[in-house]
Amino acid sequence: MPSASEPATVTATPAPRRPVGRIVQAIAVLVLAGAVLLSFPSLAPNPYILSAGIVVLNYAVLSTSWNFVGGFTGYISLGHGALAGLGGYGTALLVTKAGLPSFVALVVAALLVAALAVPIGFAALRVRGASFVIVSIALVLILLLVFQSWASVTGGSRGLVVPRPFPGLLRPEHHRVFYFLFAGLLGLALLAWWLIDRSRFGLGLKAIREDEDKAEALGTPTFAYKLVAFVVSAGFTALAGGLYALWFGDLDPVFQFSILTGSYMVLMALLGGVRHLFGPLVGALVVGIALEYFKVEFGNTPLHLVATALLLALVVLFMPDGVLPAIGALLNRVFRPAQSSIREVTAAQLRDERAAAGGAAGAREPVDAAAATTGGHPQSTEERA
To answer: 221: pLDDT confidence band, cut at 50, 70 and 90?
Structure first.
């Protein structure tokens, strides 16, 4: 019998769970989403709409790649655009200068960027908060200056032309092939994120996100975990940048090393929900489609950025945790009954409830009171005397 100062746990009967039903629902949603994703090239009315779909998929891969760092550790990096630019230029230079096949160059460039992310991570991940954001911005600006000035290798401000990997395809077929390549890369990134989220490594990363000092005090190797997450994120970001270079075929350092690219990644992930597997994907759909629409409506003027900022402000005001968490909370309120919870009461409160209920519990009340006053061990009359 617990003492009066110790809480006794009373467990109400919870509503029965239906894990099989949830798994079936998740599979149905995934199958439906996959069917829509794969059928989009056939439904696109013209090559421009198909190319816009590729841009949205590229944003989805980039924001999911960013979420390996931002979603798991809570570190906000605005410099991931530099990693995408390195992947794009690395792929292009390996094709044009080294003569490697296009997709071999893509994989090699991603591995090189991941290796380069190790010393970058050693320097950047030793600071937190606003300092980390500043370091990530500095990385973008430094690489922009390097690739603009190194004209003999990178083409400088003139840019760099990347040979098409499928020269015999017409433009619509070229778009179609790369649409499926981007979709496959997105599926690979989502699978990696899902596996990490359910691993012991992912648990350590989420502990860093919640309270890094406490996680380190409990024995989590926080710096090593952050570095591994940063390297994995850099590898996927470089793959997205390199695949974009092979698809688009023309690289400009001002565009490739732009702070806006990293800002879009952060915006999309936060918009959809950084703690959700499909949060960055939903954010990419919303922001990517909005950006393409506003660019068509307003041209190259900054008005499309203003319209996107207004969209973000509306979501932040009404869905501060992201679109998917807000939708999930709404569905829980509408379709799921309130479930019983576990509550804690003190031994004295439990004794009073039993006394009020009467019956057998009331008959045991003197024994319970004696046990409570003596730390949980009833005493005999001689002992109390």
So the answer is: very high
